[in-house]
Every structure is written in C-alpha cells, then in structure tokens.
Design goal:
With 267 residues, this protein is α/β, with parallel strands linked by helices. It has 7 helices and 10 strands.
Length: 267
Amino acid sequence: MRPGAPPARTRNDVVVHEALRRVGLGLALAGIDPRATAKAVRNVPRFVRDLRSFRTMSRDVGTPLPSWRTALPALADASSGAGTTGEYFLADLWTARRIRRQAPARHLDVGSRIDGLVAHLLTFTEVDVVDVRPLATEVDGLRFIQADACRLDGITTTSASSVHALEHFGLGRYGDPLDPLGHLRGLDALAGTVLPGGHLYVGYPVGRPRVEFNGHRIIDPMLAVDRLVGFELVEFALVADGAVHTGDPSDVLDRSYGVGLYHFRRR
C-alpha cells in the first residue's frame, strides 16, 4: 500500500484480532452487545443518583417530578462517544462522495443500506433500489424494486452501486435462495446494468477468501478487477483499522479482513 496504508501487524496480532472480530460479530448478529451491557451495569449507580438529584432540583423550581415508575434508563450513553464512524459509515461516505462527483440524474443501488448510502444519495439524486426484502415505507425520490439481485434483466443505468451486499448473496441470510456462486452472479448482474461510459461502485469484505456461513463471505480483493471485463478500475480504497486507505487491491491479498471499495468505469 502507498503512504497512509494500515501499519503492518504481527501474525499473533492478526490471530487475536480475527478471533475477537468473529466473536464480536457473532454476538452482534444474535442481538448481544457485551460491551454495552457492561457499560449499562456500571452506570446504574449514577442513574440512581442523577434521578434523585433531578427530582430534588425539580421540586425546588416547581417543575413536574419524574416518576420512578415511568423512568426510561439510558445507561450506556454517558460513557459512549458522540457517534459511530465504523466501516459501514466510512464505506457509505466514500462511495456517496464519488457518486456525487459524477452527479448522475438517477442512480441504481442494489442491497446497500437505506439509512446509509441510499440516504446520502437521495440528498442530490433520485435512486432506484433493488432488494430481495420488502420496503414498507415510501420515500420521496426513491423507487423500490423487490427482486432477486442476481436477476436484473431489463434494468440499465449510467450509475450503479452495491456496498456491503454482494458478500451475502446466496447464503440465505436475508431469505434469498441458497447459491454458492451468488456473489458472482450478483456482481455479473449488477455490472450488466451499466451502460458504456457509466460508473459502477462496489464494496465488500476482502481478504483470504472464505465463507463465514451464513453471515457473509470474505472475497478475494482481485475478484472484481479480474472478472469485470470491459471495465477499468478508477479507484480502490480499503477500510481497515478504523480508517480509509488508498492503494491497490493486489496489495491486500494477505489481509485477513478489510472492506474493499471499488470505483469502476465501463469502457
């Protein structure tokens, strides 16, 4: 990687980091966040003190007293940061900024977060969204298409994206059909929508190829570059260690995990 690349780590660092990542991800997918639970437990005494003090202050100034019976304890926020800027945030922002530079009149997205990348895009363009799951709400500027993302026949565009989605195709996690080649079919289908001269933006976990069923795949960082015949790679970045690093996908072949971000242009 060029200057700005993530620092080299020892083999032991990689093993420990990977083990912790897998444990944390598995618990998160099950709806369990041990760190948030620990913070909440530690902050119970503070909550009790604050509520008592607030009741006293309210009584002194003649405002309604909060009731213990209707309390709604938010126990972890006081010891948390101002917000999260994790890999989803960084990947969505990187992609949205590049799409904004091209300023398409309309954009196609397949499977990215509605409350992430798609929300960014709706601030400056209309978006067609494809997802295998239903979308219950209507949003101005968003046209929703419920469909199998591996079958996009008849859809064409000059600007298309899919961030943190291709790695799930074919694993059944979201109710889609099981297919060991789902990520390849999805990438081919997405690329097939892009007209000559158009732009394609994709992002997914990269590193040593493997399937962590049924959560996601880790995909060879060179797969899209080698597979998308007729496309040129405009830019590549890697989200790793809490930051976005510029470079070349071939430089991250030996990583265990990162999020590869690709901007292609169809010749």
